[in-house]
């Protein structure tokens, strides 16, 4: 179902590979955890599966296809088989729960009748049938993640990729989300989940692939989180500014004055958080960049860290470019405008109406499903060939002739 053959991934401008000669295979119906310290390469694996990045060496096979051989035009069809869930939910803020889930089906041209049937079904499955008309901001974090999961599975993908899906949730809520993912897996969907949550991995006792600096150090059928996957950052990071230095000095003094006080710092989360607190007050961007709390951002803007152009079609399927002059101050309006445009396209407007929208600036990206902005320009060739729905992985209508060749298409 997914196979990495000797895959090495080196990002442009870096010397150390993010993934180094990685080999693994995921069989149909498996539930796999990818674990490892921050920066060990978990998100890179997911990006390679989604064909947001391409391997520097080796091959990635997904659903029988060597992903390197899938053309940009066919990526949307390919991605229809892959549901994706992120730490930060990424819902359309001004659409109801029902509409958020329905949107996925509308853009691939499902009939109204189908939508009316499928959406309540999936909302029931995730336990939100009584909240269909709520807006995302009226939901708890756990409920929002359920909506995101409903959206990811409503089209019955063969694989569900989850990048830290419980990263923003408390333990009890996380447990509920994990039960839901287990249920989805029990219904036949292969699940690959990147996580830092040791308790979850330990409890589930599923297959665990552990990465250390881009290398697989463990592939265990019924594994726990392990010890090397612990985030190793224990020392204070590079100070930023006078205040950070002052705060640190104060902390040192306090420690001298109360040498017997037991530390409340736990090895994993707070080891990262504790030294960051002073820095973060000065430099929230640094916080976002350096803590383990933003893998989804990393996924949505894969080229941002290097500051260089992505080395492949790294635009996520859900991101479309914004026309900055009509986006106004409210990105949600733009999102809705695009959704409406797309819905019109689904309603019979010829496809060229979507494809022939005026060229838009290459430097700005706009979230389509309530997502953060992608930071880099889209590859030109992707721009030329992909419509909105294609970029979503959801293009409606019949495949074009050339699409048939490769037989990459929606789940039949
Ligand atoms: N677009 C990029 N450009 C340059 N380097 C990158 C890029 N994306 C990731 N990296 C680097 O590749 C390595 C692996 O990153 P990756 O995001 O895959 O790790 P991760 O295990 O998912 O981390 P986290 O748990 O913090 O999300 C890191 O050293 C990271 O800095």
TrEMBL record:
Q: Which GO terms describe its molecular function?
A: ATP binding; ATP hydrolysis activity; transmembrane transporter activity
Please provide one cellular component term from the Gene Ontology annotations of this protein: plasma membrane
Q: Where in this chain does the record put each ABC transporter domain?
A: 2-238
- Residue ranges under compositional bias (Basic and acidic residues)? 235-256, 349-358
- Database matches in SUPFAM superfamilies: P-loop containing nucleoside triphosphate hydrolases
- Please report the record's description of how this protein sits within the membrane: Peripheral membrane protein
The Gene Ontology biological process terms listed for this entry are:
cell division
Query: Residue ranges of region Disordered?
Result: 227-412
Question: InterPro entries recorded for this chain?
Answer: AAA+_ATPase, ABC_transporter-like_ATP-bd, ABC_transporter-like_CS, ABC_transpr_LolD-like, Cell_div_FtsE, P-loop_NTPase
Sorted alphabetically, the keyword list is: ATP-binding, Cell cycle, Cell division, Cell membrane, Membrane, Nucleotide-binding
Chain coiled-coil ranges: none
Chief location category: membrane
Q: Subcellular location, in the record's words?
A: Cell membrane
Q: Which family does it belong to?
A: Belongs to the ABC transporter superfamily.
Query: What does the subunit comment say?
Result: Homodimer. Forms a membrane-associated complex with FtsX.
Q: What does this protein do?
A: Part of the ABC transporter FtsEX involved in cellular division. Has ATPase activity.
Protein name, entry field: Cell division ATP-binding protein FtsE
Q: Which organism does this record belong to?
A: Labedella endophytica
Q: Which gene encodes it?
A: ftsE
């Amino acid at each position: 179902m997914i196979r990495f053959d000797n895959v090495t991934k080196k990002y442009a401008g870096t010397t150390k590979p993010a993934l180094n000669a990685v080999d693994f295979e995921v069989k149909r119906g498996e539930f796999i955890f990818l674990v490892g310290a921050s920066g060990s390469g978990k998100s890179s694996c997911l990006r390679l599966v989604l064909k947001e990045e391409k391997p520097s060496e080796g091959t990635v096979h997904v659903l029988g296809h060597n992903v390197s051989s899938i053309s940009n035009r066919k990526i949307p069809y390919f991605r229809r088989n892959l549901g994706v869930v992120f730490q930060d939910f990424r819902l359309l803020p001004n659409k109801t729960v029902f509409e958020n889930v329905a949107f996925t089906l509308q853009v691939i041209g499902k009939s109204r009748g189908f939508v009316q049937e499928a959406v309540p079904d999936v909302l029931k499955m995730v336990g939100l049938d009584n909240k269909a008309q709520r807006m995302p901001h009226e939901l708890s974090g756990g409920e929002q993640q359920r909506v995101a999961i409903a959206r990811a599975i409503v089209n019955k993908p063969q694989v569900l990729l989850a990048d830290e899906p419980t990263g923003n949730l408390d333990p009890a809520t996380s447990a509920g989300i994990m039960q839901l993912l287990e249920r989805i897996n029990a219904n036949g969907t292969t699940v690959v989940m990147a996580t830092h949550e040791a308790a979850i991995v330990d409890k589930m006792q599923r297959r665990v692939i552990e990465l250390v600096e881009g290398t697989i150090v463990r592939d265990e059928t019924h594994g726990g989180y392990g010890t090397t996957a612990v985030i190793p950052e224990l020392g204070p990071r590079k100070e930023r500014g006078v205040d950070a230095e002052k705060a640190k000095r104060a902390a040192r003094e306090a420690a001298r004055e109360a040498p017997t006080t037991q530390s409340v710092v736990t090895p994993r989360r707070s080891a990262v958080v504790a030294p960051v607190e002073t820095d973060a007050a000065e430099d929230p961007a640094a916080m976002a960049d350096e803590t383990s709390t933003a893998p989804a951002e990393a996924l949505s803007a894969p080229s941002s860290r290097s500051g260089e152009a992505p080395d492949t079609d790294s635009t996520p399927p859900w991101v479309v470019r914004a026309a900055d002059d009509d986006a106004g101050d409210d990105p949600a309006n733009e999102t809705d405008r695009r959704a409406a445009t797309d819905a019109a396209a689904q309603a019979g407007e010829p496809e060229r109406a979507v494809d022939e929208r005026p060229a838009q600036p290459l430097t700005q990206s706009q979230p389509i499903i309530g997502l953060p902005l992608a930071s880099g320009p889209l590859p030109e060739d992707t721009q030329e060939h992909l419509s909105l729905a294609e970029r979503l992985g959801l293009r409606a209508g019949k495949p074009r002739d050339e699409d048939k060749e490769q037989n990459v298409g929606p789940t039949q």
